[in-house]
Amino acid sequence: MQSMPSIKTNIGANFLASVWAAAMGIAFVPVYIKYLGMEAYGLIGVMAALQAWSTALDLGLAPTINREVAKLRGGGAEAQGVHDLLRSFEWLAGALAIGICLCLWIFSGWLAGHWIRLEALPLETARQALSLIGAIVATRWLSALWRGGLMGMERQVWLSSYASVFVTFRNVGVLGVLAWVSPTINAYLFFFLLGSILECIVLRSKLVAVLPRPPSSPRFSPEALRSVWRFAAGITATSILSLALTQLDKIILTKMLPLSEFGEYMLAWTVVSVLSVVVGPVSNAIFPRLTTLHVSGDNAGLVATYHKACQLMSILVIPAACTLAAFSLQILFVWGGELGGGLPVVATLASILAVGVMLNALMLPPYLLTLAYGWTRFAVITNLIAVAFIVPAMVLSVSYYGAIGAAAVFVSLNLAYIVVGMHFLHRRFLPAEKWKWYREDVLYPLLAVLLTLLAGFRPISGISNSFGIVVAIGLVWLVSQIGAVVATPLGRDTLASLFHRTRTS
Question: What one-character DSSP code corresponds to residue 420?
Fold first, then answer.
């Protein structure tokens, strides 16, 4: 088994990159809306939704290559087989990427004229924008394959550095295009397409460079595809069902609401996406490590790493999500002012969605545990059951309550996963660890944070100036963060270790 880099280093690098990406994205959104308007910003929301859906069409290629490369590091795979699998996946991914571009180009006119509810935006502008979105989605989907391989090699530090450079290039560059070239949605999208193409070139070159060299040249291999098809098929089914559950709201809302109102919903999602700053770093680092520990037979290390990952996720995501949910109105006012009159609606949506994202993040390490074992049936079965109940609920809730109803259904879905789904998951994997997960990994830090926010809610609601709001919310978040740390064994052990090192130095 190859030596493994420190998981703390990987998570730290991922975290810094996520913070930078979130800061860049959040900082520039009000400027984009100023140049483009809320209706055109709604098309950016459409791009985000289509990009999420495209992950369900990758046949599980990215997570599969991630797992196979991690197995290679753990001694459970050969370099030739991994290279042949990568080459085979590249052929499949290339064909599907071309298919995505062609489909959106062919149907762009129909989508612009009959699905999206335009108000002031010209039909031809929307049609051209959808064609560009198709190309962007295809190229970014291709880049996910090579990013998955690099994650399997645990090149987290390099990936984080590269991601920071590219997110800066995209956000600063597109702002220059809007300010000095053309303040239009299509100029925005064309620049993003150029950046996505460059990203594909860089990622593939890096992955080929870091993988161990094979004895012979890589080739398309039906045998390599057959060896992983069950895992890839399970991932694909899980992805399709998960996206049906998490992205159905956006599809329904693009049809039932005006594009400007859909833009408000997607703006709330943009704000809530700041939580990926803490979710992404942990999940990206933990999956290849759990896979390597499982393949190498280190069960004690697997259990210890699993609980540390779950507690770290709680420490990082619960204080941030609960603070955002409690003070979304104040936070959004400081960030974007009145947001064109849509502040109350966007704030309400952000509060509800933040709770749903938090619940979803808490069950992510257990889900990654099932993938490390190569068992995808659990996610497929639970998601099939959820679809049967959630789809009618989504349609009814949006019909009566609009975007608020869609957000509420998203929270209900993830709450059911936490309460019911995690019970059955732990009954199959690490059954002796189930109550420790519910109690120490989730419940204790959640209670500590809620008590802190309850104490600080009324004083903050009476502050009216921006500086005072920032300071007050920052202090409440800091105290709740300390409470979450103290409430978990990982946090207490870390504090004790820091105290011991301070005394002995």
Answer: I
Query: In 3D, which of 17, 19, 106, 90 has the Cα closest to residue 58?
Result: 90
Whether pLDDT at 447 is above 90 = yes
Residue 387 and residue 409 in contact, taking contact as beta carbons nearer than 8 Å: no
Residue with tokens 């109940």: 389
The single residue listed with the structure tokens 């068992």 is 375
Cβ atoms of 174 and 188 closer than 8 Å: yes
Is the whole-model pTM more than 0.70? Answer: no
What tens digit of pLDDT does each residue of 115-131 get? 676 677 777 877 888 88
- Answer left, alpha or beta for residue 87, where phi above 0 means left and psi between -120 and 50 means alpha: alpha
- 53, pLDDT greater than 80: no
493-421-284-172 Cα dihedral, nearest 10 degrees: -110
Are 55 and 145 a contacting pair, CB within 8 Å?
Answer: no
Q: How far apart are CA 417 and CA 390, in angstroms?
A: 12
| Whole-number pLDDT of residue 106 | 83
Strands (E), 31-121: none
Q: Are 255 and 115 within 8 A, CB to CB?
A: yes
Q: How far apart are CA 238 and CA 81, in angstroms?
A: 25
3-state secondary structure 319-345: HHHHHHHHCHHHHHHHHHCCHHHCHHH
Q: Give yes or no for residue 56 having a pLDDT over 60.
A: no
Question: Residue 451 phi/psi, 5° resolution?
Answer: -65, -40
- Number of other residues whose CB lies within 10 A of the CB of residue 299: 11
Give yes or no for a contact between 382 and 440, defined as CB atoms under 8 angstroms apart: no
> Is residue 353 over pLDDT 70?
yes
Lowest-confidence region among 47-51, 355-359, 435-439 = 47-51
pLDDT over 60 (residue 452): yes
The rounded distance, in Å, linking the Cα atoms of 441 and 310 is: 6
Instruction: Give the start-to-end residue ranges of the domains of the chain.
Output: 1-229, 298-505
The shares of helix, strand and coil residues in the chain, as percent rounded to the nearest 5, are 90, 0, 10
User: Cα-Cα-Cα-Cα dihedral of 79, 83, 88, 91, to 10°?
Assistant: 170
* pLDDT over 70 (residue 52): no
Residue 216: burial class (beta carbons within 10 Å; 0-12, 13-18, 19+): exposed
